[in-house]
Structure formats: structure tokens, C-alpha cells
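Q: My collaborator sent me two sequences in one message, no labels, and asked for predicted structures for both. Can we handle them in order? The first one she listed is below.
A: Yes, handling them in the order given. First sequence, followed by its C-alpha cells:
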Amino acid sequence: MITKNTQRRACIAAILFVITAVYMPLAHTAEWSGNVSAQWRHFFSDPATSASQQHNDYISPAIEPEFYHAWDDEKQSITITPFFRVDQYDDERAHGDIRELIWRNQFKSWQIKAGIGKVFWGVTESQHLVDVINQTDFVENMDGEDKLGQPMIQTTFEQDWGNIDLFILPYFRERTFAGTEGRPRTLPANSDQSSYESADETQHMDYAIRFFTSLDIWDIGLSYFDGTSREPLFDPVNYYDPASNTLIPRYVQMQQAGIDMQATTDEWLWKLELIHRNWAAENFIAATGGFEYTFVGLFDTTADIGWVAEYLYDNRGNSATTFLEQDVMMGLRLALNDEASTDALLGFIIDRETNETLISFEAGRRIGSNWKLAVEARLFRNIDSTSLLYAIADDDFVQFDLAYYF
């Protein structure tokens, strides 16, 4: 959760960086882009809890500009991407962040990046087990796709046989959580009192390394991370604030080895993510694997439709800290391949033991050359009172985003 002071500092820093960028030497050669958006989120039912504080409709505008400037024959560049959202009710979702403030220097066979950046690892659709560099911006969306900017130094060595990335991560970002009026709100979390296994807390130095190569039809990534876990733990006995009736996130140290693989043939994509993690005096293995098959040129049109199927496994079973431990994901992906880039994805995640079901729908379409309309829906079915999702069992919602890109 980002505190008010942190929000204020992030917003001020973002403004200062943008102003500085405008007056940089040779700024007339710089490139500006980004988007301004308005979001409406509607919940179909009253909340299961905190009915007097939560609402059924939320409106929130956001802005995410990007400044890019390259020099020295484009061997060096700087990218600045601040982000800010205002929410109608949720003070914690009204937040600012620097998604990127990264300097890059490209040499003959290697490059270095320094600043605040975003790194993505992973190939599967339902979850990204190996993606451990950036912290999740959980107030943006519960699917875990939105990330906070991560302070880092990244060095990439590029060879014919593959790439090696080395990361030094000198500062830790806490996960964001919805406030008392926010919805969906999976956990009543109080990040102002977050606890850490390491005495260095947010100043702990984390490290990571990843090797990536392509062999014929295979893309293979091998990764290792040693540092503060981006996923917080919640102990209602030892880490609980009775004054605010909230849980206190606890961030422990972890070591994680991971592999992500994808094989591409004519119409098939075969995907696998596998991790072994040691944390909180516990070792466990988790994996997500499956395929995507695409019917190209459906009914002699330009449209493609893909069938997605994945299995999600965690050997901790019911003691897992995630609700994705013995689940099956099935989905359909549609791409019309038209001028407006119309696409849609319908997905189901079903627990094999309890039949707990998460239904998601995402669709998008450009309007003209600068506008885009996106629609998203989340539905929850067969949620038991003992489930990690019980707090949002009545939080079925639909969301509309209208964005202007410049």
C-alpha cells in the first residue's frame, strides 16, 4: 500500500522529472507519447462486507505520459513514464508512481540500464510464476498484470547463443492494496505497519539473474532471484492491528529458481512456467503449463480464434498462499485482425476440488486513430466461506476504459 506521503513524493518527483525532460538539451528531438483515460467500474451486487463503506460504482481518471530521448547515434536513451490515477472513493487507489525512469547505454555486445524500470518474465496466460522483479500494483487490477516501477541496475550481455541479464535491486516496493472504500478488496491490509524478515526492510539489496535463448522452435528462460519476496504473507495471529481491524503484510526473504519455456509451431503454442521457491522456512514447487491452438482465417475471414488451456499446480495444496493451487484454466481468444484491432479473451479458472470458478472477459477496440475502448468483466462463482476469495464473493463487476493516445 502506498502511504499518503509516498503518493505525494511520487507525484512531485514525476512532475519534476517531466519538467526537467522538457528543458533537456536537444529536447526538440525527443518523443512524447502516452494516454489519458477515464474508467467506470460497476458492481452488480452490494458487497458482502463493509456495505456502509464500499460502493457499487466507481469513476477514476488516469494519465500515463511517456518521454523518450535518444542521443549518441541512439546508443544512449532515457525513458520517463510517470503514472497518476484519481479515484472517486478509494484513497489508496488515488496514487502516483514512476513506472519508468531508466537510462540505457548500448555497447557492441552488451548494454546497461539504470534507474526505475519494468521487467517482465513469463509465457503462460493464467499467471506468471517466474515474474518476480517488479511489485504488483494491486489497486490497479486484481489480475496482477499492472506493476510498480522497480529501482534497478540491469546489465545485459548479448551473444549468439543467448542473453544473460544481471540485476541489482537496491530498493523494495510494497504491494498496494485497496482502502476501506475500495472494491474489490480481497484483504483488509494495513501497509503502514508492514513488517520484514530482514532488518534492512525496504533497503535490502536483492539480486537476480536470467539466461534466455532460442533453440529452433523453443524459447527458453532460466532465472534465479534472491531477495525480498514481492508476495506478502499474512499472519492473523502475530501480525494483526486490532485498532483498525486490519492484517499487517509481512515480507520475508526468498530464493527462487524458475524456468519458462514456449514452443511455437504452425498453429500451436506450448507453454510452461515452473518454479522452486524457498521462503518462510518452507520449500515448494509450483507450475503452470498448457497450450494455445489458433484457428487461422476462421470461416474464410481475416479473424483468428484461439483455444487456450492450462493447468495450475502448487504442491502446498490447501495450505498455499494463493487460490491457484489445483486449478484448470480454459479460454477463447478472438482477434478480428481488422483496422480497429478488435480483440477479446474469455477465460475460466476452475478449482478441481471445490468447483470455485473465476470468469474473466476482456475486449478492446480502437476508435479512430487516437481513441481506444476496453471492456473488462470479472465474475466469481461457488466461492466457499473458507476461500481466500470469500471477501469478494459478491464483487462481480464490469469495467469500461476509454483512453486517448497521443
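Q: And the one she listed second?
A: Here it is, processed independently of the first:
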Amino acid sequence: MTLARAPARRSRLLEGPGPVLVLVVAAAVAGARLGGFTDLSVYRYAGQAVLDGRPVLESGDPVTGLPFTYPPFAAVVMVPLALLPAWLAAALWTGASVGALAAVVVVARRALGRPAPGWLVALLTGGALALEPVWRNLTFGQVNLFLMLAVLVDMVRPERRWSGVLLGIAAGVKLTPLVFVVLLVLVGRRTTAGRAALAFAGTVAVGFVAMPGSAATYWADGLVDADRVGPPALAHNQSTYGALTRLLDGPPPTLLWLAVAGPISLAVLVVGAGWWRRGDRVLGTCLGALSMLLASPISWSHHWVWAVPVALALWERSRCAGAAWAALFVARPVVWPPNGQHREYGWSPPDHLVGNAYLLAALVLAVWAAANLNRRVDNLGRLPRHSARRPRTRRVDVARSPT
């Protein structure tokens, strides 16, 4: 009897959260041992500034020399990090980041109508760590995995009572998720969009209450200064603004940037809304994310963590497309041409093609999505396969029928 139960027990362990917890603990241990995460140090500095009542935007982190570039509300969110020893903050942040990545896999697969057993979630999460945006997010100690999870949860289930709140909070930490409020309006979820807008307004108010001077500085001056977060010409900036900067050997005029990035981003957003309304909320949300990345003046490569749910959505339609998309972000061709120290200004035409690979891949995906938008799709938004299918018949499970 004991031997008969052993396989079943092992099966339950593999199906449950155990494999994911092992991965999270391993990530936390690695984070504690490695430490020295650049952006996490800046976050801790911002949280300490809130505790000390000091302005956070006027000076940089004394450890890294880098400024805090997020809205003041984000500094308030980072206060708990400042209360922890550096090694413990690194451990918890890294473990929680991997946990958020695993949660993204679960949410995306379930929204796509696919099972999410623990062993498979752990396998996919471990594989996702090989994607450059993901591992760079972890090595910097960045916040993007948490924001992606918050947005995805609200976007795939906007009919829930409190949907939109997480999205609004995410936008309060980093402004770019506000694009999803527009997406919600386009798909007819105006109540959820309004809830997200109210939550975002609340984060602005919290920032003014906690840090009135820094909040006034941020919303008056820092909001429109793209250079405050780094040189936009760097190859890692995979936005339309970054591509134009490299192509023109200098930052483009604002009107030119808006004339190029505006229509492209809006078109991608509209296509995303079309897929969302047709039942594929994962792909629709991912297209909204790509619109956000294309529109933002600065979209560092570690902002492209949305490559993970995009790969999951593509895999459901074409194994080759999903694998090719993931392989692109593993290979990270954006750093193959000469980069850094303004060497991007000397790029040849092939260098521009390779060095803007993330951006170009997003445009190719958007064109494919637009071309297939009006084709017949099933209730999950998947394109029908060309092979013939047997008609489905309803199966009655007598053992489970009501008596």
C-alpha cells in the first residue's frame, strides 16, 4: 500500500507549488550571495530619503551615483527596502522577482486555456531566465517583473470587482503602464479604466503628501526630460526614440519623434485592442505592452520582460514562431554592433538592422497580428489550424453525473 501511494505523492508534489518554491528559494539565496544590484541600491536610497524627509530627485544614490527617476510614490513604495540590511533586501527582492515571473507564466497559461502544473511553471520560469530582459532585470534589481504581473492580472480579468487598482498602482510606480488605461477604454472596459485612473491619481496624491518638494519637481520638470535616465542613443534603448537617435546621430526633434512614434504606437495599440476583444486577452495585452515600449522615449532592454508572455502567446499559434521569438531575446543581437561611448552614431545600415532587433521584432509581430486580425478565431483567439479536425462530440461522464 505504501509503495502504491508513493508515485501518487510524488505526482502531487510535482503538480503543486513545490517546484516553483524551490526555484524562488534558490533565487533568494543567489541574490543574498551576489548582492550589489545597481537599481536596487537606488531604490533603497529613495526609501531612506522618504524616511529622512530629504528630497529624492535632487541628488543621486551615494553608492552608485545614479539618480532616482521614478515618481515620488515609487520612493514611498521602496521604504521597506531601506529598513532591511542590504543582503536581506537583495535576497527578498530577487526571490520575489522570480516568484512574480512564475506568476506571470501561470496567469498567461490559464488565460490561454492551458494547464499550469508546478513542474511546468518551474520549467518555463527557469527557461525564461535565459532571456536577456529577464536576467538583466534580476542582475540590476529592477522592478519590471512586478509591474508586468500587476498589469497582466488586471488586463486578463478586468471584470473582477477591484480590477484596475493594480494597474493604477503600477502606473504610479512607473508611468508607462498608463497605456493600458487607454487599452481598457478601447476594449469597452471603461469602469475598470476609471478605477485604474483613480488609483493612479491616488498614488500622485500620496507622493505629494510624503514628498511635496520632490513631487513638485518631478511633475513640473523631470517628467519630460528623457536624458535624466541615461543617454537615449545607447543600443539597450530599444524604443522608437532610441532608434531615431542612433539613425540621426543625435536626439530627434520632438515633432519628428511624435510624428513617427505616435502613429506606430497607436496602431499597435488598436491592433492589440482588436485581439483582446476577439478573446485573446494575453496577446492583446502583450501588443499593448509593445505599444508602450515603442512609445516611451527610453525602453531599456530590461524593460522588455514582456517578451515572456509574448513567447507563450505565440507558442499557442506556432511552435516555430514562439521559439524564434524567445531565441531572439536569448541571443540579444542588440549588443552585437559596437555600442557605448556614442559608438552607436557610427553604425552602418546592417548595424542598425541588428542593433534595433527588439524594436523590429515588435513591429513584425504587430504587422502579423494586424494581417490576421479579421481571420476566423476560436474562443481563445487562436487561429484555426489547416489540418482537418474531427467534429467534437459531447462526452457524458456517467460516474460524475448527478443522481
